[in-house]
Amino acid sequence: MGVYAVTGGSNGIGAKTISILKQKGHETINIDWKRGDIEADLSLPEGRQKAIDELFSLCPQGLDGLILCAGIPGSRKDLRLILSVNYFGTISIIKGAYDLLKQKNGACVISASSAISREDTELAPAANPGAPVIPQLLAKDGELAAWMIGELRGLGYTEVNLNLGCPSGTVTAKGKGSGMLRDPVKLDAFLAAVFANAEGPISVKTRLGVEKPEEFAAILDIYNRYPICELTIHPRVMRQLYRGQADRAAFAAALPGCRMPVCYNGDVTTAADLHTLEAQYPQLSGIMVGRGIIADPALFREARGGAPAAREELRGYLDDLYHGYSELFGSAGCAVSRMKGHWFYLIHKFEGAEKLEKQLRKVREPWEYEVVVNQIFTLPFRP
Predict the structure, then answer these.
(1) In 3D, which of 13, 18, 27, 5 has the Cα closest to residue 108?
(2) Which residues contact 26 (CB under 8 A, 6 or more apart)?
(3) What average pLDDT does the chain have?
């Protein structure tokens, strides 16, 4: 029989899991803040480390399984506590117990209530050697953001980015993203709280303002007060969303006043765009590409002198995405919804695709999606 560790095993799903395992003759170790074989508070770094240390002491021969059921319900409305247990507690226990699982080729199971997915672990620094992964936060509470930054650093992330540029109405209505730019006083207080309570590199992504580019002078004056490691500027205002063109003249006017390294973002869709920006602004620390890389997945390769994506290569890329989404979400239907977002930017590569594009927008079932995509790939292709 096997040895299984279960977090949150004193109540609910965790307790039922332990009961079933014991009925089948397995040995179980309950990790919980009370009434556990290992009593540890997973909301605190020292509690997580205590749980890991005691696991190694109790299971020197390894674990057959780790089942993570500990979680704080959203009804508690304590975001810091929820994140501490559901996200950071879960990740820390997985990382800490990895060697014990490896000894027995054990399995790790995460309850949905723990609010962590395979996607989260795939974005961990250790899973991306050589590729810097920078978490981005949407926040309006400076002290909470600083706490989150500390937790993320504990997971191995070096830099954290504050998103003050997202123009989505659902975000700005809550005073987050570029909604933070409405009130310079609150923006200043937010950054003051972040930099007073968080250590290490912190970058910022911003827009020029809410209504007009002229607002950026006052906003930049605030940014210049803090040790921002890099400022990414998208030269639109919040009200524009993604309409119109990025205001490169306003960007050029603002650049000399920036006291920190600056990264450009906005309407970079071709290799020529990248080369033009590099030539025009050699002092840039970087160029950020978003929608452009979705519309042309080979964009960076082309910028280095490589070939554009061929039809077969694009087909393989999209098939991998579709199957990856299906596996990640456990539903091909959810994958179809995600793929529509990619096709919105990619359909231009196929001549005469207007009718099929309309059909693609309406499909709901996986088989419908697959039939339409097969038809799209019979059309003349624009590399």
Answers:
(1) 5
(2) 1, 2, 3, 4, 64
(3) 91
d(CA 244, CA 279): 24
CA angle 194, 199, 205 (to 5 degrees): 55
Burial class, 343, CB count within 10 angstroms (exposed 0-12 / middle 13-18 / buried 19+): buried
The pLDDT of residue 4 is 94
Distance, in Å, from the CA atom of 223 to the CA atom of 227, rounded to the nearest integer, reads 8
Cα 191 from Cα 143, distance rounded (Å): 9
Which residues in the chain come in under a pLDDT of 70?
Answer: 74-75, 77, 112-123
- The whole-angstrom separation of Cα 24 and Cα 14 is 16
CATH architecture for residues 126-267: Alpha-Beta Barrel (3.20)
Q: Give me the pLDDT at residue 108, please.
A: 86
Q: Domain 3-116 is in which class?
A: alpha beta
- Residues 14, 6: Cα–Cα separation, whole Å: 7
Amino acid at 303: A
- Rounded Cα distance between 351 and 260, Å, is 44
Paired sense of beta strands 231-237 and 160-164, if any: unpaired
Q: How far apart are CA 223 and CA 282, in angstroms?
A: 22
Cα–Cα distance for residue pair 277/118, rounded to 1 Å? 36
Alpha carbon distance 242, 239 (integer Å): 9
Determine how many CB atoms are found less than 10 A away from the CB of residue 50: 17
